[in-house]
Amino acid sequence: MIIYLCKIPMNxxxxxMKQIAYYTAIINxxxxxxxxxxxxxxxxxxxxxxxxxxxxxxxxxxxxxxSSSRRFDGAYPSIQNxxxxxxxxxxxxxxxxxxxxxxxxxxxxxxxxxxxxxxxRTGEKVYHVLFVDSYVTWWRLGKSYLCRLVDALNSxxxxxxxxxxxxxxxxxELLREVILSGYQ
Length: 184
What we know:
The chain has helices at 22-39, 99-122, 135-141, 143-154, 167-181, and strands at residues 56-58, 64-67, 74-76, 84-90, 127-133, 160-163. It is α/β, with parallel strands linked by helices.
């Protein structure tokens, strides 16, 4: 039996609505499984599954040469001198639609801008992935916001957007590409 060590977070709801954040849990488990297969590391998840700090880059002299202004949902291999960063937008159990979705899109664009600026200054490229789920949120209520995500993808604000169940095939494939290629 395989025991996974990554975090399985809960959503931010209260009462009966408080549940496991399923999409985030799937992403974390797939990341740990895939990284284990590639690296044979079984002592931990192999990635930062709950970054509580800002991501940053340090030079050979230990000086910070770039950082983000926001926290992310995951980073590989860690938040320092990382190669892959991801954020997850899952909006289940919401009773209203509005500013949280707009804020999420704006945050993704801001993150992309900052990561691109770090790359221009330092030459350190981070592959930036956005995961979105909740059919009702994106396809019924928020098509205009979905269009903004496509714009962020096309303008280089995010390197990849993985939608819904696409996570099962594309996420392990993408992890393999980045880890095995030494993406830089």
